[in-house]
Structure formats: C-alpha cells, structure tokens
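Hi all, a correction to my earlier message: I attached the wrong file for Fungal lipase-type domain-containing protein. Here's the right sequence:
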Amino acid sequence: MERRRWLKVAILICLFALSGSRELKVRHKYHLPAYNHTLATILVEYASAVYMSDSTELFTWTCSRCDDLTKGFEIIELIVDVQNCLQAFVGVAKDLNAIVIAFRGTQERSIQNWVEDMYWKQLDLNYPGMPDAMVHHGFYYAYHNTTVRPGVINAVKRAKKLYGNFTVMVTGHSMGGAMASFCGLDLALINEARDVQVMTFGQPRIGNAAFASYYSQLVPNTIRVTNEHDIVPHLPPYYYYFPQKTYHHFPREVWLYNIGLGSLVYTVEKVCDSSGEDPSCSRSVTGNSIIDHLVYYGVKLGGEPVGTCRIVMDPGVAGYATEDLGGNIILSRDPSTSFLKLNTEPGLQHANN
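and the right structure:
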C-alpha cells in the first residue's frame, strides 16, 4: 500500500511538471497594433514631462521637458495626489488630434527599494468582472482608489465635449506605465474612449495570463516598449512553470536593443510576437539594469533630485487649484481661456519626502 501511494504521488508530480511547463497563450480577438516609431518618440516626451515637480511650469507647459515634439500641448487637468506621491495630467495635443493622459512613475530616489520590493509581490486581487483574472493590488489601488481616477475621468469627459471624438492616448513610464494600462482598460470598459491607445515605457507586469487575455481584447491598440536590460519589465517575476499563478505581460512588446561595436552601434526596434512574453525579446536577456530603465529613445525618464513628492506653485496658478482635506491638489482649466499673468517667484510650496 505504501509503495502504491508513493507511485501515485510520483505520477501526480510528473503530471504537474508537464502541465506547468506549458506557457499559456494570450487569446486575441483583434489584430495586434502596428508600431509607430514617430508616435513613440512623441509619447515618451509626455511620459518624461509628467515627472516634473514644478506645477506652475507643468500646468502652463513651460517646463524644461515641455518642448521639442510636445510643443503647443494644452493641459486641461493636472492631478497631484500628495498622500500617495502620484501625479498625472490630461490635455490636448492638436497636432495628434488626441487627448493625451500621462502618469508619473516611481521617483528616482526610491526606485532601488521599489525594485527590491517588486521581487516579492504576489497576485493578490481579482479584477472585477473578469473571471480568473488577477492583478497586482498596489498598481490597481494607485489608479482606482486615489484622487487620480476621478480627476482623469472628469478631464476626459470635458475634453471630449470641447474637441469631439479625439483619439485618447495614455502613456507612462515604470509604475506610471502600470497606471496607464489600468486607465486605458478603465476608459474602454466605461465607454469613455472606444478608440483608446496605450503606449508605455519600462512597464512592470500587472496581472496574470487571464487578465492579459481580457486586456488584449478590450484594449487591442497597446504597445509596451522595453529597453535593453531594463530590470522593471522583468518584475514581478514570470515563472513559466506555474502559468496559472504567475504574472504575465500583455502584448504587444517592442524591444529596443543595441547591436554593433564602437561608433557603429545602432538601435534595433524589435516588434515582438502576440504572446506578451516573447522569449526572443526582453525575456532573452537578464533584466539587471536600472540605468536602462531611466532613458528611452534618448529621453530622460525619472524624477528630479529635489525630493520625492515636491510641489512648487506660482500664486497665479493657485487660482486654478482645488485642494482636498488630504492636501491633494487638482489644477483644472478650460483650454479656450487664457492664463492669468504669472509671477516669476514661486508662491505655494508643498513637500512630502
């Protein structure tokens, strides 16, 4: 009897190993999006600008990162969630005929601790209305349970009234990419943006294979750009031996990597397969670089060295601000009106380090 029992255990272990070694494939209902290099180089500048801490310069689009390919952008709403160290903006890019939403990622001073913490994050939340879909509670919470979501949704509604059926483009870097993905899915589900496009940079995994399948069907026009050995797209870890329980990226990945030697080095932009976990893309290398996480397309991504959650605001801009009891601030304007004349010296300052 004892021998037969151990034989059954051995058979079960073998079956588990065989079934666990098969990677789950993400199901698709729609064609995968085409990669647009020009659009990527524009959206990465928006993903960079949202890190700026000077609310006056960001709200008036006069900051050092608010130029070049994003010149002429008009912010409708700037949301600064001081309690949770989050920031996002919604505005209109008339050259793209688009409403652009950008989310700030993890601040540079805390990224090392954040990366270490991400190694141990478990799938710990069932996504509402999606059987078997599980997601990362922290990323879900950052978008859905803070001042960010109502501010973004309200601004999108106002923008659509002003500009009609502009395309909605959502972007972000690092944790901002995770929030951008939840936002794109949210907009699709509540029918605020049927034509929503999402493009993220250095985004971590946010859910399991079931979630990735739902996501790819509901937000098919999604591109995740990864860079060289960037550590964050490898987090939380992916275990192909446990496909039902592990995190799983959704498609479509575009992997940037360099080839050549010396002065002959050039960047390849590889459009990956439909699995979300193409083994020939970023998964083909070790994700061990924070440096590769902080620059995409030659654009610096990450915060400024002044502090993790600092706000600087001119008194002229303070007239557009509303502040709740938690100290969170929303700067809101109608882009058809002109700004008040701004003072040169910063007035209102908040710091939460």
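Sorry for the mix-up. The two ends are 64 Å apart (CA to CA).
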